[in-house]
Each structure stands twice: as C-alpha cells, then as structure tokens.
Specification:
Blueprint: H1 11-34, H2 38-55, E1 61-66, E2 70-75, E3 81-86, E4 97-101, E5 106-110, E6 114-117, E7 119-121, E8 125-126, E9 130-132, E10 145-150, E11 156-161, E12 165-170, E13 176-180, H3 183-192, E14 193-195, E15 201-203, E16 207-209, E17 212-214, E18 218-220, E19 242-248, E20 261-264, E21 269-277, E22 280-287, E23 292-296, E24 302-306, E25 313-318, E26 323-327, E27 332-335, E28 342-346, E29 353-358, E30 365-370, E31 374-379, E32 385-390, E33 395-401, E34 404-409, E35 413-418, E36 423-429, E37 434-439
Antiparallel strand pairs: 1-2, 1-37, 2-3, 4-5, 5-6, 6-9, 7-8, 10-11, 11-12, 12-20, 13-19, 14-15, 15-18, 16-17, 18-19, 21-22, 22-23, 23-24, 25-26, 26-27, 27-28, 29-30, 30-31, 31-32, 33-34, 34-35, 35-36
C-alpha cells in the first residue's frame, strides 16, 4: 500500500493520554481523603479500572454480511469467528446491510426484509430471530433495504428502501392514558376508530382530549376502562367518565410491527446515517433522486434538502462536525450539517464512489472507496489526500475509528488496517463477496 501525506496522530497515543489523565486525577482525589493508606490505594485502583472501562471505546466485534446470505460476527482482536446466522433458510439472497448493537450483542440483518438476531447465551445459544419491515403496503420482494440506523436509546429503527421511502419503526412504545368525560368525546372517538387485520382498533386521525394528544395509528388497548371489550359499539355500553389506554399500533415489541413514519424521497433511498445533535437525533438519507435529506427523528419533519450532486447519492457519513456524501458523479461532498451548504467538493475518484466513513474522534478524517478499486484517506477540513489503501476488488463498506480502518470487498475479504501506516493487519476470507459491515 502506498503511504502519502504528513504524519498522523494515532489512537494509541490518545489512549495513553486518557490512561495517564485518569491515573493522575484519581490519585489526586484519593490523596485528598486518605493518602498512604492501603484502603485508599485499593479504592484508587478499583476506581481507575472502572473509569478506564467506561472510557474504553475501542471496538471489540466486527459483523459482516455476505453474498451467501449469512451474517457473521468475529472477535476483532483475534479474528476468531464467534457466530454465523442465516437471514433466510429458504433463500440465499446476499445481505444488504448488517447492524451490530448493544445489549447482547444483537445483530440486525436485511435483504428485502429485516431480522433481529438475539442470543439466550452469547455466543453459543441463538434465540429465534424476529422479523421487521414486512407486511408494509407497497413493500414487497422487489424492495431492497439499503441501509439501517438505530437511535441512541435503541427504540427507533430506520430502514432505507429502494422503493423510495425510509420506514421508521418504534419499540418499547409508551402507553398514553386518556380520560373521556362526555358522550360527545365518546362519539368522536368511535368515529375515528377502525378495526385492523388483527382485531385491534386504531385511530385513523389524530385526536385531542384536553391536554392529551393522540396521534394517528394509536391503538385502543383492551385494558383499564376497556378491559373485556372488543368493538366500537362497546364504548357506548361504558359509564362515564372513561379511563382508556392507547399505544402505537405498530410497536415492534408490543404491537403488530407497522412503520411509525414513512419518509419520502422521489426515487430509491440508497443510504442512511444517524447523528445526535444537541438534544435531538437526526436522520440523513441519500437517494437516487440526487439529494440528501435531513429528518428530525422526533416528528419525522424534513429539516433540510442538500442538492448539488449530478448523479445518485450512494453513501453517507456523519460525525460531530461534518456530513459527507458520495455519489455516482465520482465526487465526495462535505456539507455543513446545520444548513444545506456544501463546504467543498472532493473529486479524487475516477469511478463511482461506493462507500464513505468519518472518524468520531479525529473528526477531520474521512475515508472513501470507489469502483476504481481505490480507498483513500482524506482531510475533510481541507480536501487533502493523506493515505491510500490497496485492494483487489471493489470495496463495498468502510468503518473508521482512530487507528482502526475496516473494509469489506467483493474479493471475499474483510480487511483490518492500521490507519496511519496504511498496513493491512488482518484478512478474514468469506465464501462470497462481502456486502455489509458493522463494528461494535
């Protein structure tokens, strides 16, 4: 691999600085309350270990999706295969995305639909996989899930679809309690309720009862004041005031798995990225319609539309400073996140840009791959090219964290690189093209 550009700060140096800082701060605190005692020394050692574990953000696992239809999880330090799961036993469609999440860990895999894989005992005892992104109106086998993202608290799941939508799902949905005091309110509720495919009753329009607002698709639960009841007519049999419970009808964990929101593009959605900004979380989607859109995850509103690419947007990455998009127009664009302004265009690839990744720690570090078989490390703040990583096939996805770079390619290899030296430290061979990547 060729190595160009100036010397780069390594993740090891950063970790050593953290270690020294924790040791100095804890020793200072302990000395203030009991210098020299063996008890204080033991407390200090225990506290240091706990703080170091909390600060240790070094990835431990890497998951891959393969053209053979299987998802695999490896120990990142040793390369040992820990688990392998098949997305669909009746089909061997290539996996389009994988997402490795806490707790557990859990592994999400997708083709035209999605499955959540969990373990009763990690990693030896696999539990039954749960499905998602199935049964939506207009979403069938012709669809492909091209990206998935999970909110920080794990309760909101977004799926990019080639039918031109982002399907947003919720889990652990809260119960909303409502008090109904008049017959007029009962009649308004009856008119808004509809019987679903699973004998559930849900709202076809939003309603307000005092200070409580019920959104469309909230289901009336058969508990509290409606316990033992099942139809709209039963509401007329109940005595006022009524105390009723509602919950989103499509809740992934306690409902019938319907999309909470559907975010629309004009053409196929090809990529997703999720970022926490101030107190909110925002979803970025890239599309064949040549735009990037920013969505408020809380209410599904479109905040910005980023335009400028002359061909489809195939890949996205976001960190605390930058939003980056890669396109079939062979360029990368670095954007402001808080307004649809392009900071710079990077035209270093000679073919379609296939994947991009940003570092969360060294936030100016940007890595990209293209159908020209090139993988480059850039300075996102200047557009300067810093490193090149040689591959024997098209690299489909990338992950960048400090001194760790992971790439997966159509040449059946998952590669682990040392970012600064551009040296390949490990290769994990697969039975087919490696199509998806997630690191935890």
């Amino acid at each position: 691999a060729s190595c160009i550009g100036p010397p780069l700060e390594s993740g090891r140096e950063l970790w050593l600085l953290r270690t020294i800082a924790v040791q100095s701060i804890v020793d200072s605190l302990i000395n203030d309350v009991g210098a020299g005692s063996s008890v204080a020394a033991g407390v200090a050692d225990n506290l240091k270990r706990r703080v170091w574990r909390y600060l240790d953000d070094r990835p431990r696992f890497v998951a891959s999706g393969c053209a053979d239809g299987q998802g695999r999880v490896f120990d990142l330090a040793t390369g040992k295969l820990l688990v392998s799961v098949r997305h669909d036993f009746s089909s061997r469609q290539p996996l389009t995305t994988v997402l490795l999440t806490r707790p557990g860990p859990e592994l999400l895999t997708t083709t035209w639909d999605g499955k959540r894989h969990t373990w009763e005992e990690w990693p030896s005892k696999h539990a039954r996989a749960e499905e998602f992104a199935r049964g939506e109106k207009g979403v069938g086998h012709e669809n492909s899930i091209s990206g998935i993202a999970l909110s920080r608290d794990g309760t909101i799941l977004a799926c990019a679809c080639t039918i031109g939508r982002v399907l947003v799902y919720r889990s652990e949905c809260p119960i909303v309690e409502v008090d109904i005091n008049t017959s007029e309110e009962v009649e308004m509720l009856r008119e808004a309720l509809k019987m679903g495919d699973f004998s559930e009753m849900y709202l076809t329009e939003p309603l307000e009862f005092g200070i409580v607002r019920l959104d469309r698709n909230m289901a009336l639960l058969k508990e509290a004041g409606f316990e033992g009841m099942s139809t709209r007519r039963d509401l007329l049999k109940l005595e006022l005031p009524l105390h009723l419970h509602f919950r989103f009808v499509g809740c992934l964990t306690r409902g019938h798995k319907r999309a909470w929101r559907q975010l629309e593009h004009e053409e196929a959605v090809l990529c997703l990225a999720l970022a926490q900004e101030n107190a909110g979380e925002f979803l970025y989607s890239g599309s064949r319609d040549r735009t990037v859109r920013k969505w408020d995850l809380k209410d599904g509103s479109c905040v910005h539309v980023y335009t400028g690419h002359s061909s489809m947007v195939r890949c996205l990455a976001v960190n605390g400073t930058f939003l980056v998009s890669g396109s079939d127009d062979r360029s990368l664009r670095v954007w402001k996140k808080d307004e649809p302004t392009c900071l710079r265009k990077i035209a270093g690839h000679t073919d379609f840009v296939r994947a991009v990744a940003l570092c969360a720690t060294f936030q100016q570090r940007l890595v990209s791959s293209g159908d020209d078989l090139k993988v480059f490390l850039w300075d996102a703040s200047t557009g300067d090219r810093l490193r090149q990583y040689d591959h024997g096939g098209i690299v489909c996805m990338l992950f960048l964290h400090q001194s760790l770079l992971v790439s997966v390619a159509e040449d059946k290899q998952l590669r682990v690189w040392q970012t600064e030296s551009a040296t390949c430290q490990r290769q994990l061979r697969h039975p087919g093209a490696v199509t998806a990547l997630s690191v935890l």
